[in-house]
């Protein structure tokens, strides 16, 4: 009997040792790739300039992973500016140090230094992207992050013949870092982009650009998956392919109920998975994208070409799509309201039905006064942006480090749950007393696993209402409601979709409107920030 016990103990110890060895081996075999951030010369719009790139590529190298994978990316900065990299839409469970927002979850990588990020995937599946998260370097430092199904699993739709990343971007003739530094120094709006791009190319409608226009070759009858990424700096974009319908099957790394449409509207930071079937006459067809108007915007149009393989007489000019007008708010609303989560047994969702913490956050464009009205903003002021009248001040130490090491005087944990005062947020000609915010580095503390609702309220302070893109780090969230005018806490929640709202990480707050999101704060220890994607210094807040 005693010998049997010893034998059993030895077997158990052996199994334990084997498990430990297997775990160690698994950890040791996380793939590492090397990236070098460096300048490279690129020619666009008849002129050549140096831009910041990863490994000399623009757009940067795509990353392909499978659901649940891990990957290490060693980034060496050989540029002239500080840099960080953000893995947009990746939750990074218990791994905030690799998320990338400078001075929020990490100090930036200085020129000559390196930093190794670890990308930890969880339930994301579909198209995401990565980009620099420091100043305006993301204009050229960005690329696709494609999350494929786990090995042996399939898509919730028929496997496409081919997958093609489509990255919508911005091109500036000037040095992007000098543009934003000048704007911040003088307090005015930065220059508008000189072109939009598709996969780094402006397209046929711009000077000196026709030769480089991106061409997507297709075979008649085949279906293709376009992985569309909104890497444009400021503007929300319409996108169409002439004479072809599209079927949107995913947004922000999550699947939705398929919707067939002739166009999409995509916000900076958003991604969409779109199926397109080559079912038209063999010819050339323009893909085209242009802005949905804000206060100021680039009114040009970027193009690429969908080109059928085969023998035929090519047209002198490809067919052009009938894009929605720059100010077509109905097209924006009609598209957005159709987005609903797939929400089936294979892709379940978990929408919080009850809420522990509610926040009502007013988004405003503001200004600070300048001596002798000497700045370039409205009436000689300095432009700013705020959330609940707090304009974010970038600290000298990253907030996450200060939190864990209990370093005092870096931030305050008193970000308000609501605006400091209420007014007709979306009214016209609002009082000048509303235009000056408070400066601060504010944090909101959330309890682990609490259910959170945030209502973002757009405002018309300074008559500057526009559609604000908003992004949450560390958590995707459910877009449960949106509308125009001032949010009504009594009536508007009755229209919430708590059954199958889309699970996203970036949304556009409607012009003179509001949007409501819900999520569970189940990523402990995470330094997460909500950012106004805009071309002026934004308000931001963090939570743990």
Uncertain runs are 15-26, 527-542
Task: Tell me the major beta sheet.
Answer: 6 strands, mixed
Strand content: 35-45%
Structure summary, number of beta strands: 32
Percent range of helical residues: under 10%
Widest β-sheet, arrangement of strands: 10-9-12-17-14-15
Basic shape: globular
What are its keywords?
mainly beta; 544 residues; six-stranded mixed beta sheet; disordered C terminus; 32 strands; 4 helices; 10% helix
What does this structure look like?
This protein is mainly beta and 544 residues long. It contains four helices and 32 strands. The protein has helices at 2-28, 176-186, 329-336, 399-404; strands at residues 32-44, 47-54, 63-66, 70-77, 85-88, 114-120, 126-132, 142-148, 162-171, 195-198, 215-218, 223-230, 236-241, 246-251, 254-261, 263-266, 271-277, 284-292, 301-308, 357-368, 382-387, 390-392, 438-440, 443-444, 451-458, 468-472, 477-484, 503-504, 506-509, 513-520, 528-532, 540-543.
Write a brief structural summary.
10% of the residues lie in helices and 37% in strands.
Mind sketching the topology for me?
Blueprint: H1 2-28, E1 32-44, E2 47-54, E3 63-66, E4 70-77, E5 85-88, E6 114-120, E7 126-132, E8 142-148, E9 162-171, H2 176-186, E10 195-198, E11 215-218, E12 223-230, E13 236-241, E14 246-251, E15 254-261, E16 263-266, E17 271-277, E18 284-292, E19 301-308, H3 329-336, E20 357-368, E21 382-387, E22 390-392, H4 399-404, E23 438-440, E24 443-444, E25 451-458, E26 468-472, E27 477-484, E28 503-504, E29 506-509, E30 513-520, E31 528-532, E32 540-543
Parallel strand pairs: 1-4, 3-8, 9-12, 11-19, 20-25, 22-23, 24-32
Antiparallel strand pairs: 1-2, 4-6, 5-7, 7-8, 9-10, 12-17, 13-16, 13-18, 14-15, 14-17, 18-19, 20-21, 25-30, 26-29, 26-31, 27-28, 27-30, 31-32
């Amino acid at each position: 009997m005693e010998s049997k016990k010893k034998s059993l103990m030895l077997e158990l110890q052996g199994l334990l040792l084997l498990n430990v060895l297997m775990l160690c081996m698994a950890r040791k075999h996380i793939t590492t790739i090397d990236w070098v951030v460096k300048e490279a010369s690129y020619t666009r719009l008849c002129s050549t300039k140096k831009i910041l790139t990863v490994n000399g590529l623009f757009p940067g190298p795509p990353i392909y992973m499978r659901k649940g994978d891990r990957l290490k990316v060693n980034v060496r900065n050989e540029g002239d500016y500080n840099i960080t990299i953000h893995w947009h839409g990746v939750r990074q469970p218990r791994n905030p140090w690799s998320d990338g927002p400078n001075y929020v979850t990490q100090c930036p990588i200085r020129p000559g230094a390196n930093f190794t990020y670890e990308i930890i995937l969880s339930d994301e599946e579909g198209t995401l992207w990565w980009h620099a998260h420091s100043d305006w370097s993301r204009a050229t430092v960005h690329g696709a992050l494609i999350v494929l199904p786990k090995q042996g699993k399939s898509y919730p739709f028929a496997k496409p013949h081919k997958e093609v990343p489509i990255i919508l971007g911005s091109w500036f003739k000037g040095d992007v870092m000098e543009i934003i530094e000048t704007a911040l120094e003088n307090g005015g709006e930065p220059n508008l982009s000189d072109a939009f791009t598709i996969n780094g190319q402006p397209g046929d409608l711009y000077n000196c650009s026709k030769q480089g226009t991106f061409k997507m070759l297709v075979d008649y009858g085949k279906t293709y998956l376009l992985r569309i990424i909104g890497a444009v700096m400021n503007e929300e974009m319409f996108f169409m392919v002439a004479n072809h319908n599209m079927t949107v099957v995913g947004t922000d790394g999550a699947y939705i109920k398929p919707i067939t449409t002739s166009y999409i509207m995509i916000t900076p930071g958003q991604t969409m998975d779109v199926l397109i079937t080559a079912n038209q006459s063999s010819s050339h067809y323009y893909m085209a994208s242009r802005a949905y108007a804000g206060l100021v915007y680039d009114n040009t149009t970027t193009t690429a070409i969908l080109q059928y393989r085969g023998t035929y007489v090519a047209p002198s000019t490809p067919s052009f799509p009938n894009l929605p007008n720059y100010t077509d708010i109905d097209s924006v609303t009609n598209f957005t309201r159709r987005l609903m989560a797939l929400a089936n047994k294979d892709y379940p969702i978990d929408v919080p039905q009850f809420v522990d913490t509610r926040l009502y956050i007013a988004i405003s464009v503001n200004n600070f006064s300048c001596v002798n009205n000497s700045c370039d903003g409205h009436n000689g002021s300095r432009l700013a942006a705020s959330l609940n009248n707090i304009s974010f001040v970038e600290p000298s130490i990253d907030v996450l480090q200060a939190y864990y090491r209990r370093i005092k005087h870096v931030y305050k944990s008193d970000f308000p749950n609501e605006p400091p005062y209420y007014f007709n947020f979306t009214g016209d000609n609002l009082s000048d007393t509303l235009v000056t915010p408070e400066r601060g580095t504010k944090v909101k503390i959330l309890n682990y696993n609490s259910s959170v609702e945030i209502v973002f309220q757009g405002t018309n302070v300074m008559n500057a209402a526009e559609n604000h893109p908003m992004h949450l780090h560390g958590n995707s969230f459910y877009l449960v409601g949106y509308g125009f005018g001032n949010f009504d806490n009594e009536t508007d929640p009755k229209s919430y979709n708590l059954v199958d709202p889309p699970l996203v990480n970036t949304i556009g707050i409607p012009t003179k409107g509001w949007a409501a999101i819900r999520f569970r704060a189940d990523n402990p220890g995470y330094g997460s920030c909500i950012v106004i994607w805009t071309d002026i210094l934004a308000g931001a807040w963090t939570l743990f």
